[in-house]
Amino acid sequence: MSDRTENVAVSGESAPPPRLLNVDALRGFALFGILAVNIWAFADPYYASPSSNPTFDSGLDHALRFVVALLFETKFYLLFSFLFGYSFTLQMAAAERAGTAFVPRMLRRQGALLVIGLVHGAVLYYGEILSTYAVLGLALLACRGMPPARAIKVGIGLVLAVGVVWMLLGLAQLAEGDAGGTPSSDVTAKLVGFGGDAAATLGFHSGHLPSTLAAVAALQAPSAMAMFLFGFAAGRLRVFADPDGYRPLMRRILLLGLPVGLTGAVAYALAAAYAPGGGLETFAFGLGQLTAPGLTASYVVAALMLFQTVRGGRIERALAPMGRIALTNYLLQSVVLGVLFTGYGLGLVDRLSPPVVLAVVPAVFLCQAEMSRRWLRRHRYGPAEWVLRAATLAAIPPWRAR
C-alpha cells in the first residue's frame, strides 16, 4: 500500500490535492525571520529591557540592532499568523474531504497545540507564542462562516485599533516626561538563569512564562488575530493556489504596502535602537503596528515573485521542506539556542558580540534546511507535526514515508 493510500486509509479522507509548495516555502522564510528575532532573547539579557544594552560599544552594534528592528521585529510573527489563517482553510477542506465534522477536529488540534506551546514555554523559551495561537485559533473557529470581505474588514479594524491605542499610550508617556527607563531586574535574573546550570534555566523559563503570556496577549495577540483573518480570507479565495490570477493585486500591494510599511518600520527601529524604553518607543511601536501588515504583505508578494522567477523555483523547493515541518523546526530553534546560550549547554548569554550573534542565524537556518530535507526523505511528517496530526484525527498517522 502506498504512503498516500495508507494516509487516506488512516484519516478517512479522499485523496488530498497536491501540497502548495509556495505556502510551505513561505513558512520556511518565516522561520528565518523568527530565528533572527528570537536569538536576541537568548543571547542578549538586555533585549526587551527598558534600556538598550550598555555593552553595545560601537556604531556597528547599534546599526545591527536597528536593522533587526527594521526588517524583522513585529513582521515575521505576522507572516506566521497569516499563514496560520490560510492553513485553517486547508484544514476545513481536509475535513470536508474526509466527510467528518470540522469543529471536533479543530478543537483537538488547538488543544494539542496549547499543550505543546505551554511545555515549550515552560522548558525551552518563555517568550513562546504557540499557546496564544492555540487560543486565537478558537476565535477563528467561531468566525469560520465569515465571508472573506468581512474578514478583511474586521482585520483592518483590529489593526487600526491596536495602532491607535499604542500611539495614544506613547503620547501619554511623553506628556508625563517619560523619556526612557533603566534596565529592569529581569536582566540580572536572565544572566543568573542562563549563566547557571540547567535547573536555573528551567526555573527562569517556567517562572517568567505567566508574565510573558500576558505581555504577548497585549503586544501581539490582537495583531496576530488580524493576520489570522487576512490569511483566512486569502485561503477562502485560494490566492496561493492561483497566484497568477492575483498579479494586479500583488503589484498594488508592493506599490503601496512597501513604502508605507517601511516608513513605520524606520520609525520603530530608530526608537528601539536609539531611544528605547519610553514614550517615544511606545508611540513608534503603535505606528509600526499600523504599518507592519503592509510590510509583511510586501514580503509575501516579493517572495512569491522570487519563487516563480529564480531558476525555475529553486528557492521555493529549497525552503519548502523547512516549512513543511515548520512546527518541529520552530521548537528545534529553541533547543539549539538553549544549548548555545543558556544553562542547558554552553551558557554564552551576553558573551558574543552582536555581529557574531547575527552570524549564527544563517548557520542554524541552513543546518535546519538540510536536516529537514533529509528527514522528509524517510518521514511524512516532522515529530511535532505527527503529534499534532494524531490529535487532529484521533488516529495514528503513518510515521515513515514509503
TrEMBL record:
UniProt keyword annotation of Transmembrane present: yes
Entry-linked Pfam families: DUF418
Top-level taxon of the source organism: Bacteria
Keywords (A to Z) from UniProt: Membrane, Transmembrane, Transmembrane helix
Residues that span the membrane, as ranges: 25-43, 63-86, 130-147, 154-175, 212-232, 253-275, 287-307, 327-346
Sequence ranges assigned to domain DUF418 in this UniProt record: 234-393
Coiled coil residues, start to end: none
Keyword Transmembrane helix attributed: yes
Name used for this protein in its record: DUF418 domain-containing protein
Organism: Rhodococcus tukisamuensis
